[in-house]
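Key result, reporting period 2: structure in, sequence out.
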């Protein structure tokens, strides 16, 4: 019974990760640079970008700020 909800969370994590990576690449920014600007470790950024992290809204806000966008932009399809 939990699988459909879990599948939704996993696809949502993939969406956020993909948007984060795409924005970072557009800005020609390395994960290390984004890490320094956002205060999130490079290893955790990698997990987020690969859809394996479970960041808090506060962390996503820090990442979005470092990417020069709004946190809601990370949620867009």
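The corresponding designed sequence is given below.
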């Amino acid at each position: 019974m939990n699988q459909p909800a879990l599948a939704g969370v996993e696809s949502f994590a993939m969406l956020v990760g993909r948007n984060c990576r795409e924005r970072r690449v557009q800005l020609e920014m390395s994960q290390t640079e984004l890490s320094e600007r956002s205060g999130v470790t490079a290893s955790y950024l990698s997990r987020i970008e690969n859809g394996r992290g479970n960041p808090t809204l506060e962390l996503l806000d820090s990442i979005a700020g470092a990417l020069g966008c709004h946190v809601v932009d990370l949620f867009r399809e």
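DSSP finds four helices and no strands in the chain. The chain has a mean pLDDT of 91. This case is discussed further under Risks and Mitigation.
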